[in-house]
Every structure is written in C-alpha cells, then in structure tokens.
Design brief:
mainly alpha, single chain, 7 helices, 0% strand
Length: 209
C-alpha cells in the first residue's frame, strides 16, 4: 500500500507539471520549483521503498500465481472471466441508473478500468472484432474522467498556493491560473456528461460472442 501511495504522489506531481505547461498564464517560478522539488522527493522515497521490497517473497508469489494459471482449464478461465466482466458492468450501470445523475467519478472510473481490462482480455481470446467499439467507448470515458480528476487535483494545489501567495505579486497570477483551470474543468465535466449519457444507452454487458 505504501508503494502505491508513493507512486501515486510521483504520478500526481508529474501530471500537475504537465498540465501547467498547457495552461495560460504561466505559474510563478517559486510554485513550479516547489512542485518540482516535491515530485523529486516523492520519486526518491518511492525508489528507496522499492529497493527495500522483499524480492524473494514477490518472486515466490509470482511463481505460485503462474502455477495456478497453468492449472486452470480453458473453459473454467472463460467462465471466471465472464463472471467478473458481468459483475463490473452491473456495477457500472448501477452507478449510471436514472436518478443518479452525479455518480462518484473516481469510484466509477475504477469499475470502468476493470471492465476495460477484462474486455481487452476477452477480445484477445475470442478474436471478436465487435468488442472493439466497447473497448473504444470505455477508453474515452476512462480518459475523460482521468483528465477531470487530474485537473481537480491541480485546482486544490493552486488553491493552497493562492493562500500562500495572496499577499505577494504572484497572487494575481495564481488567481488567473485558477480561473483557467476552472474553465478547463467545466469543459471536461460537459464532455463527461455527454459520455455518461451515451453509456446509459449501452446494454448492461457486452455480447461476448
């Protein structure tokens, strides 16, 4: 869990730096420097924790998983895959049901990501090209929610920086950045609303051929 948390901090910092490159006006150098330093420190902590990982234990776990996979009958594997996929699509459609116009997007994205990975595996196994449209739709929605989530994180970061800089010359610059991020968030939210409405029209599970 600690490794995932540290990797998440590195990813968040890198994404925020990338988003700031695409937004006008440019942020104050002090803010960029703090964000760069925080990201670098998170990367160092992640690499240190990774180096301390019990590699032998991880290798034993991987070997045991490989043995389980080899012993699975092909039919059993497909049945298990179908059951997992059906459960994910049911979870998605519960969150998109009428009367639930504002689902928790982070929670929804987790189920979308799982469904995306499972449909991808099914596509490889079955060779059914009809699954490509589902894969594309899931990918677009996952990306849209991911971009929205990253912008929300950047917005919170800028709000904290704004409080720190409100008495300095950088305060106005941060305020303009916050407005730009807010406009971008509104565009992403409108895009997500359209994609969610399209998703509500989809069947509750894919035709797996």
């Amino acid at each position: 869990d600690q490794l995932f948390d540290q990797a998440g901090m590195v990813r968040e910092g890198q994404l925020h730096l990338k988003l700031l490159e695409e937004i006008t006006p440019k942020p104050p150098e002090k803010f960029l420097s703090r964000l760069n330093n925080r990201t670098s420190e998170a990367m160092q902590e992640f690499e240190t924790a990774l180096a301390k990982c019990p590699k032998q234990q991880m290798q034993k776990l991987w070997i045991s998983l490989e043995c389980e996979i080899e012993n699975l009958d092909g039919r059993d594997f497909l049945l298990h895959l179908n059951k997992k996929l059906e459960a994910e699509f049911k979870a998605i459609h519960r969150r998109l049901a009428p009367g639930r116009s504002n689902p928790r997007l982070h929670d929804l994205r987790i189920h979308l990501r799982r469904a995306y990975e499972l449909v991808g595996i099914l596509r490889l196994i079955s060779g059914n090209p009809e699954l490509d449209a589902i894969i594309t739709s899931l990918h677009h929605l996952i990306d849209a929610i991911g971009n929205w989530h990253d912008l929300k994180g950047l917005s919170k970061n800028l709000a904290l920086e704004g409080k720190r800089a409100e008495r300095s010359d950088a305060g106005q610059n941060i305020a303009e950045l916050q407005k730009a991020v807010k406009r971008s968030l509104e565009r992403h939210e409108a895009q997500i609303d359209l994609l969610l409405e399209e998703a509500r029209q989809e069947p509750s599970s894919p035709d797996q051929g």
